[in-house]
Amino acid sequence: MKMKSTKHKWVTLVLSGLMAVGLTACGGGGNASAPASSSEKPQEQAASAYPEKPISIIAPSGAGGGLDKTARSLTKILQQTNLVTKTMTVENKPGGGQSVGLADFVTQDTKNSYKLLLPSTPIVINHLKKDGNSPFSHNDMTPLAQLTKDYGAIVVRADSKYKDLQSLFNDLKADPSKFTIAGGSAPGSLDHLTIMMPAVKAGIDPKKIKYISYDGGGEAIAALLGGNADVLATDVSGSGEFVKAGKIRVLAVSSPERLTGLFQETPTYKEAGYDTELVNWRGVFGPKDMSSDAIAFWQDKLKALSQTDEWKQELAANSWDDGYKNADDFKKYLDEQEKMFKDILTQLGMQK
Predict the structure, then answer these.
(1) Does residue 41 have a pLDDT over 90?
(2) Percentages helix, strand, coil for the chain, rounded to the nearest 5?
(3) 308: which of 136, 178, 187, 256 lies 20 to 30 Å off by Cα?
(4) Which segments carry the region annotation Disordered (predicted)?
């Protein structure tokens, strides 16, 4: 009986020792962790595959205008710098001072992250005015980035007798019926306001000004050069090549201060005696239901684009000001513009 008791004690001691070793391995002495099983390891987020196919940028205007040029410059530099390696194309969808292109973009392919829209300030204005207004606005899309700042310009042919804005406005005030004003946007929209804002400051009755809208700046400047209009309300960037060619004269620009380069001798509205200014942004939007991968991709690439030498050279070549704003800042700015234009249109009796 004694032998059995001794053997039983020995077995119990061995088993106790093995259990202690097992507990030490699992508990690590209270300091080490047991290796996690494969199911417990944190899973790495899969890399986004976007973009996987060609991308289309829609310019809601005709060929040759500022939006068309900006869209083509954007695609060119994105591919030259290899920021985007997939094929990129530009589609022109003119009509209604950007309203047609905007409506098509907002209502078609609402989840298609391979289509972008490159509009400008009129999409804010058109939503606020009562005549021919658009039911859509920046709130129906995903802002990705503001790219450029441009300014309004009041232009005449190079052979015009008008050398300054004051002499033009004096005659326009005396007899508005003698003048036809051309612009690349609808009445109450950007080009219209480009001349209306200083004209109102000059005491001209806005209801007596004869304004004809064309589908984009390219068609509007052709009307001026072809003798179908006496004055053109347009943007600075769309005027540069015609100034260089000696075909037009810019009487004044809507910038807050004197521009540099080609327009350094051109007075601002304020310098001409009319205390007002107007900034025209151009930016990139995705559809309302754009995928999060696509949003992240474009926010990253457009910020990187704004910092490249190639893009800065493109801005200078087209007389564009760098207006880069990230998505959040762009959205805040759009909301601020909406309030400002609502006030302006109210003054003109053109608000919705």
Answers:
(1) no
(2) 45, 20, 35
(3) 256
(4) 29-49
- Residue 187 sits at φ, ψ, to 5 deg, of -55, 135
Give pLDDT tens digits for 206-244.
Answer: 889 999 998 778 899 999 999 999 999 998 888 888 999
CB count within 10 Å of CB 182 equals 27
Between 126 and 166, the higher pLDDT residue: 166
Q: Considering the chain, what percentage of its residues have pLDDT values greater than 90?
A: 64
**Residue type at position 125:** I
Buried b (16+ CB within 10 A) or exposed e, 163-176: eebeebbeebeeeb
Strand-pair partners of 146: 283, 325
The CA distance from 65 to 170, in Å, is 29
Question: Is domain 55-150+280-348 given the CATH code 3.40.190.150 in the classification?
Answer: yes
- Token readout for 124 is 């804010």
Which of 215, 223, 236, 212 lies closest to 101 in space, CA to CA? 215
- Rg of the chain, C-alpha, whole Å: 31
Distance in angstroms (rounded) separating the CA atoms of residues 74 and 190: 22
- The backbone region for 98, taken as left when phi is positive above 0, alpha when psi lies in -120 to 50, beta otherwise, is left
Q: How far is CA 43 from the centre of its chain?
A: 37
Cite the residue boundaries of each domain of the chain with CATH code 3.40.190.150. 55-150+280-348
pLDDT at 246 (0 to 100): 97
Q: What average pLDDT does the chain have? A: 86
